[in-house]
Write a structure and sequence with these properties.
Chain lengths: ~140, ~140
């Protein structure tokens, strides 16, 4: 149960099953054992865009965790969304991938996202930087 | 002493003072209290380049921690290097910033870095992705 793949699969299953379950029906999870889902974003061949968001947090949560989860959920529904990768230690880094600049612009202007951006500037972030970049080449294993 | 700023300043001072100190001389640190150094990379106005390196690790260290520190130290000495940001949870993300593609190419071909890349493929990473991207716009607080 310590495998990050399994954790992700369970999180994924919960997020995508619970809200679609009709009231009273029993909940079952299908875990695809032996088929590890990659934690890295499965992006298409370049070119595509990366939004590199780096930040340092203020002290305390102040609703941050809930908002961060909601923003990922919301971003996934946007046209042109290709994936996201995120980690936080002293610095938080979230890289989201997008098909084109138009998709990034629409996501930035999303009304719920605008509220989160406002709260981010006011309460959650001590500092942040957003970098809009065009991925020209990629490789990996 | 828990402030990440202070930790960074001490690490910075140690790294940059110890090797330059003539033998027998006493060591003193100057900590710039009240002037927090940002943990985010202090990049110039765009355009510049970002290398987005994301990975998942294999189990155990196998010399990884030492190599990772050495690679940051080495990258900082490369021409065209502009800064780095790094965090790891389930996924590790390291974004390094560079003046141009030529600098990235030289860094990739650095002999000590080539050794690390080979060991990375063989032992340290379960999966990784390198994305070379051109930063077109940035903003922040």
């Amino acid at each position: 149960m310590d495998s990050p793949y399994l954790k992700l699969l369970i999180n994924f299953s919960m997020a995508h099953s619970l809200e679609k379950m009709p009231s009273g029906e029993s909940i079952s999870f299908v875990i695809c054992q032996g088929v590890p889902m990659s934690l890295l974003a499965n992006t298409p061949n370049p070119p595509y865009y990366a939004v590199i968001f780096t930040s340092t947090r203020t002290e305390g949560d102040h609703g941050y965790g809930e908002m961060a989860n909601r923003m990922v959920e919301l971003a996934e529904q946007q046209p042109g969304y290709l994936g996201v990768e995120s980690a936080r230690e002293d610095v938080g880094i979230t890289v989201s991938y997008w098909a084109d600049l138009e998709s990034i612009k629409s996501w930035k202007a999303n009304s719920e996202h605008l509220e989160a951006q406002k709260a981010g500037r006011k309460s959650w972030y001590e500092s942040f930087k957003v970098r809009i970049s065009k991925v020209e080449r990629d490789y990996g294993i």
